[in-house]
Amino acid sequence: xxxKNQTLGEFIIENQSDFQYSSGELSRLLNSIRLAAxxxxxxVNKAGLVDITGxxxxxxxxxxxxxxxxxxxxxxxxxxxxxxxxxxxxxxxEEDDFITINSQDExxxxxxxxxxxxxxxxxxxxxNVSVGTxxxxxxxxxxxxxxxxxxDFLQTGDKQVAAGYVVYGTSxxxxxxxxxxxxxxxLNPALGSWYLSHPNMQFPVDGQIYSxxxxxxxxxxxxxxxxxxxxxxxxxxxPYTSRYIGSLVSDFHRNMIKGGIYMYPKSTKxxxxxxxxxxxxxxxxxxxxxxxxxxxxxxxxxxxxxxTELHQRVPFICGSKNMVEKAEEFMLxxxx
Length: 336
Ligand code: AHM
Ligand code: MG
Prior knowledge:
Elements: H1 8-14, H2 25-45, H3 50-53, H4 69-83, E1 89-92, E2 99-100, E3 112-120, E4 131-139, H5 150-153, E5 160-168, E6 172-177, E7 182-188, E8 193-198, E9 209-211, H6 222-232, E10 241-242, H7 248-258, E11 260-264, H8 277-290, E12 293-296, E13 316-320, H9 321-333
Parallel strand pairs: 1-3, 9-10, 9-11
Antiparallel strand pairs: 1-2, 3-4, 4-5, 5-6, 6-7, 7-8, 11-13, 12-13
Helix pairs in contact: 1-2, 2-4, 6-9
């Protein structure tokens, strides 16, 4: 039960018993993600100083190499989880292959794998626009005591144990679900603590915002083109407002609070869509569904898609229930 003024640490402990046979492993894992997010937040906040302290690729005043922030975020999340020996494997959008965590004393004893997009939308950093981290947690399929295998990572979204995102915005927030609703915590930067600010987040069933890169309009499937025209038409409660940040976490976060739809369909440039099933779409789909929203590839639930490769891409339509269902209606009607 969410309590006013509760910190994320308190919330995680209090809700640990939601999991049958819980050993505290998932709680410790969430705690390490919350810690890494604070470290990354600190660095992201300083991004505007890069011209003063030296750009990525330069050597800074202390003789240290300046890293690009997405590489930095990748290192921080992986290192934080590895040091704590809390997962048996990690797959990252920044890495070609998954990483096997091999602790010396307790060989491959951990139960969970993490998939992460350490800094999504990082092209926005140069212009001081919000970026995010997205994470997804699965229970391993292979037996404990053995090294992780690709199949531990290639699971359908509906097998997720937890998923969440961090939005490094005007405030930094960590939003996550363990399958019992969605809760959002805002970082108090002075104290370094996350406070429950958005308990039980819900997508409004309907919305008035559509988010899509309309620069790709001519290449979109007919169903999406027709749906966009529907959003723009002057009927009933339309035209809708168009809002596109180009940073999935931020667009999703706004739409969840205000009601809206986010779309990244396939196009000639991105014949399978642009977004990655495992690092972006599947975790966001879990959060969306837990918040009364819908996530689809245009025809079926994202959560049911069986991945065949780590970096698989998929078209993504996600948001308020009635809006996504309407977009699906158009996709079906104008199926190519
Ligand atoms: P990235 O993983 O390379 O950062 O790309 C993902 C981002 C999403 O955050 C965003 O919604 C989308 O790409 C924007 O793409 P585009 O610039 O093509 O509209
Ligand atoms: Mg990304």
